[in-house]
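Q: I have 285 residues here and want to know how they pack in 3D. Can you give me a structure?
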Amino acid sequence: MRFALCNELLDDRPLDEAFRLIAETGYEAVELAPYTIAESDGTVTPERAAEVARLAARYGLDFTGLHWLLAGTRGLHVGAADPERRRRTLDHLTHLTRLCADLGGRVLVFGSPGQRSTPPGTPPEENLARAVDTFATWGRTAAELGVTVCLEALPVAETDTLNTTQEVVDVVRTIDSPAVRMVLDVKSMSDERVPIPRLVELAAPHLAYFQANDADRGGPGFGTTDFVPVFRALAAVGYDGDMSVEAFDATPGAETVARRSLTYLRDCAVRAARGDATPDEGAAR
């Protein structure tokens, strides 16, 4: 399993410095938030993309893909009733899909709670139906470029659309495209009543990516979430893809979060492989 770091944890630093730290810490890849390299309208110029690729190569880093796809944009929404607004949203997602492919990334993680939540006065089922149509169209472009769209369940505190792993599984099955799959995120799974190992099993046929963080939104190992059962569950379903650290709380310091998270994950992976006992399997809920 390859470990990556989401670069927005270090977005207060020059990109060269951030990439150097990511590599020196021991990560092999970067999950890139486009807003950290974009123009004011959220787009990334070919020149900037080439520069970013050179910086990553300088430190031996690959890109797993992109996330925070609609951050820093205005007026975009995957389920908007206005066809023109949905077209502009799809155009932007297509732009990022090409960027991902150009950087050698493989996944596009779609969270974007504000740009998928049901607009006031709109029936939720209509918003979801339009969003699914957008995802399906986007998936055809992704397939052409060899990139995978990964839909993410998000807690009800963030959005009212696609809150559970089962709901995302249902959408992925409806679209029925090899280029539209799903990501699992520990923080989001922790909001569900179903234990994380069972959610991993449910998502397994459609799982293309995994984001690691604590239930309290900190880095792995900074809270109470036990990752040994998580690694066991991933091994049980044969997942051997990337695992990316996405920490929302940098209070201990960004470098500390990056280093300790990776150390903790590596230790948990070893313990899971050895079959070590864990104090409380239920802590991974």
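Q: Anything worth noting?
A: The first strand starts at residue 3 and ends at 6. The chain is about 40% helix and 15% strand.
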